[in-house]
Amino acid sequence: MKDSTKCLHSGYKPGNAGPGAMPIYQSTTFRYESTQAIADLFDLKTDTPFYSRLGNPTCSFVEQKIAALEGGVGAMLTSSGQAATLTAILTIAKAGDHILCSSTVYGGTFNLMAVTFKRMGIDVTFFEQSETDEQVEAKIKPNTKAIFGETLANPALTIFDIERFANIAHKHEIPLIIDNTFATPILCKPFDFGADIVVHSTTKYFDGHAVQVGGVVVDSGKFDWAKSSKFPEFVTPDESYHGLVYTQTFGKLAFIVKARVQIMRDLGCCQSAQAAFYINLGIETLPLRIRKHSENALAVAKHLQSHPKISRVIYPGLESDPSYELSKKYLTDGLCSGVLSLDIKGGREAGAKFIDNVKLASPEVHVADIKTCLLHPATATHRQLSDKQLEECGITPGLVRLSVGLEDLDDIIRDIDEALEKV
Ligand SMILES: *Cc1c(COP(=O)(O)O)cnc(C)c1O
Questions:
Q1: Ligand 1 proximal residues by C-beta, below 6 Å
Q2: Which end of the chain has fewer CB within 10 Å, C or N?
Q3: What angle do CA 369, 154, 110 make, to 5 degrees?
Q4: Domain formed by 286-421, architecture
Q5: Where are the domains of the chain?
């Protein structure tokens, strides 16, 4: 099946007289008829649901759909995108280990890596894409367990050279983990370029209607945990399951099963059936939406590129953008999502004035909504920073992040133009 078909038909399949819409299994628990049947569940001999922290049929349908879209062997929904990155890393790294992370990642991921993982004893080093292979490899240590990057970085909007970093990771027997949130599997399939694990914030384009926070971890099934010398936890007995060995019992599913039965079991950052229903509803129209978001954003970017009040537009779909070549390689039909950044002349005050004068677009701490929304980091997420500190994080005082929605293009552009007139 092609993606649009998978978005509608993968996962839940109604049986004879079954409901056409995916049912919500609003139940914490599932009934079994014998102690033996329950014992088998705890020995991981069967994979039927028994408690919704570890698996729920509604969540499972959506996991199957997302795994099919990414071309993976399995997936696990999580309570948020942050929880997806957390569980993916903790499945392969523990205190004393090290992660190599791209410096252009989502702010929440940056904090998780730079602050919270460090507090947990997992050391993280950041690298720039502009570094040579040798420079990046020099940062890989014997205890390094993964390289992490973002397909289309939020908010930098740079494109990660997945193939290049997959090759570096594999040379050192470690997996490449990709946050594919902004691109979605419709615009990019990181596994096709060598990535081993994908995470998403489903809060963004998967849901797409700003109704549900969520995340997902997807396993390509391609990384050979037994062949690498770096992952003893995959090839030695897990005492919490009577000495079960993940690679022996689950083969290509070793990573995603370990993520669920060990990390999700113990941390509990699971998704609810009701939430999975919303995410599924969003995914059904994802191919249509992401295409239109991208087309509208490109038109807005082109319109603003020569606007006298704007000094710069950042959008990888523009030929002048430093990521343009990579967008051709990694993104379907060169579509680059609905998110772009504009730098308004006049700094912090001008940026604030612009936000205060839009009427249709909604000032919000969100992106990837079906409705146009925007945010001025210098007076919102980064308001505590001085102009100089802002520049150090690559954010100019007049920068506005714009998430272009599915309103009529003429209305979006008129709203922006009218607000710019007031600046
Ligand atoms: C929003 C976002 C996250 C975090 O997701 P939440 O669902 O808000 O926890 C992670 N990565 C990227 C690229 C994001 O945009």
A1: 80-82, 106, 108-109, 150, 154, 179, 181-182, 201, 203-204, 213, 215
A2: N
A3: 125
A4: Alpha-Beta Complex (3.90)
A5: 3-12+26-281, 286-421
